[in-house]
Amino acid sequence: MTTLLLIRHGESEANREGYFAGQSDAALLEKGLVQARITAEFIKNEYNIARIYASDLVRAFDTGKALSELIGLDVIPEKRLREIFAGVWQGMKFDDIERQFDKDYGVWRNDIGNCRTTAGESVRELGVRVMEALSDIARDNDGKTVAIATHATPIRVMQCMIGDGFDSMKNIPWVTNASVTEIIYENGKWALGRVCRDEHLSKFRTFFPANV
């Protein structure tokens, strides 16, 4: 059995300012760095980590680096773990996206598994590339536990792909910053473990705004 721990990055500038970062770089805020360190301690105490992987976007990579510094393993960058490429939405405030691209953003809000960001990547395309990356990581780390720092949409899309498919994604909530979601790979099959483990963050938990 191979266990992959999907860690959402800590709170970033984009989270605080309410804009769609996508594949643009948005640094972790001080609170995000604190969240990353708390989660690193939690993982060190709860799991025996063999390797650390991360999206190469700075907010995820720095989240993985907090664990790296604690347990002495390098972070392996993996571009396929990036957040969705959001096309013209990248860098825009969510309120502005909703006003200017109401049709596309309405699908994002109400049927996200079937959404394509305006002039960008579709959620299904995101799911394919993230699944490919996680499958490669699982095969390369058979029988081990691996930490993977990534983003909110990849974690949400993986839950629907392992579960009831893209049409069900609209019913899956966003995970919190620096939370840990377990996915299990065994005998060629995927299963969900515990989702959005964030009890260790206590007063440092941060959530998505209502209009995302």
What would you say this structure looks like, in words?
α2 (30-46) crosses α3 and α6 (123-140) packs across α7. The mean pLDDT is 97. The protein has seven helices and six strands, in the order βααβαβαααβαββ. The protein has helices at residues 13-17, 30-46, 58-71, 94-100, 102-110, 123-140, 152-162, and strands spanning 2-8, 49-54, 75-77, 145-150, 180-186, 189-192. β2 (49-54), α3 (58-71) and β3 (75-77) form a beta-alpha-beta unit. The protein starts with a strand and ends in a 20-residue tail after the last strand. It has 212 residues and is α/β, with parallel strands linked by helices.
Average pLDDT score:
97
Radius of gyration: 16 Å
Number of strands: 6
Q: What overall geometry do the principal axes of the alpha carbons give? A: globular
List the strand order in the largest sheet: 3-2-4-1-5-6
Question: What percentage of residues falls in helices of 4 or more residues?
Answer: 25-40%
Task: Please report the number of helical segments.
Answer: 7
Beta-strand portion reads 15-25%
Uncertain spans = none
Can you summarize the main beta sheet? Answer: 6 strands, mixed
